[in-house]
Design goal:
Largest interface: A-B, 33 and 29 residues
Oligomer: heterodimer
Radius of gyration of chain A: 14 Å
Number of strands of chain A: 11
Order of helices and strands of chain B: EEEEEEEEEEE
Shape of chain A: globular
Low-confidence stretches of chain B: none
Shape of chain B: globular
Mean pLDDT of chain B: 92
Largest sheet of chain A: 7 strands, mixed
Largest sheet of chain B: 6 strands, mixed
Strand content of chain B: over 45%
Distance between the termini of chain B: 41 Å
Order of helices and strands of chain A: EEEEEEEEEEE
Low-confidence stretches of chain A: none
Number of strands of chain B: 11
Helix content of chain A: under 10%
Number of helices of chain B: 0
Radius of gyration of chain B: 13 Å
Mean pLDDT of chain A: 91
Chain lengths: 117, 111
């Protein structure tokens, strides 16, 4: 059973370009979470999605950032007109139940390291 | 928003020593989680705690969910070189979805 898959693992963009990060959850998981990690810091929640629905986007900047999880295919985190401050590691996690029970657990992918030149 | 204070920030120990790290929160959580992150990788779940007062072991790792639900600790006994990495605590609440993470404890083990 494959774990959470993220691609690309490394992404380099110039200021003003667009970045698209993909996440395929574990088989059987329909809840996806995106987190951002700056160097020497913990993970900061960005957005929580179920298939075709955004459940909580309270951690995602209002400008330039968007996320989707279509009925078919991976979840996409999209950053438009990237700036140097967007350079970070972006992690996706998936869970089976979306925390409707306290025993729901999030499993993380290997991350995408975004570098903005 | 909820914040987790994780300490210590870093630890340098000799192989074979025991290690202890902890997390405290300004608000309660229903679930406490401990993750380990190796360089260039995502966090890997070590231990999940679901009940206040719960003490859970996973090999040489032991973690406890504080009675007040505002804290947790992780102990590693008889450390080995492969224990090197960054350890994160995280708290979640039922139906909230997101996890709140501490800033991590960086562990270095000297052979």
């Amino acid at each position: 059973n494959a774990g959470v898959m993220q691609n690309p693992r490394h992404l380099v963009r110039r200021r003003g370009q667009e970045a698209r990060l993909r996440c395929s959850p574990m088989k059987g998981h329909s809840h996806v979470y995106w987190y951002r990690q700056l160097p020497e810091e913990g993970l900061k929640f960005m957005v929580y999605l179920q298939k075709e629905n955004i459940i909580d986007e309270s951690g995602m900047p209002k400008e330039r950032f968007s996320a989707e999880f279509p009925k078919e295919g991976p979840s996409i985190l999209r950053i438009q007109q990237v700036v140097r401050g967007d350079s970070a590691a972006y992690f996706c996690a998936s869970s089976p139940w979306g925390s409707i029970t306290s025993t729901d657990t999030q499993y993380f992918g290997p991350g995408t390291r975004l570098t903005v030149l | 928003g909820q914040q987790l204070n994780q300490s210590p920030q870093s630890m340098f120990i000799q192989e074979g020593e025991d290690v202890s790290m902890n997390c405290t929160s300004s608000s309660i959580f229903n679930t406490w989680l401990w993750y380990k992150q190796d360089p260039g990788e995502g966090p890997v779940l070590l231990i999940a705690l679901y009940k206040a007062g719960e003490l859970t072991s996973n090999g040489r790792l032991t973690a406890q969910f504080g009675i007040t639900r505002k804290d947790s600790f992780l102990n590693i006994s008889a450390s080995i070189p492969s224990d090197v990495g960054i350890y994160f605590c995280a708290g979640t609440n039922t139906n909230a979805g997101k996890s709140t993470f501490g800033d991590g404890t960086t562990l270095t083990v000297k052979p």
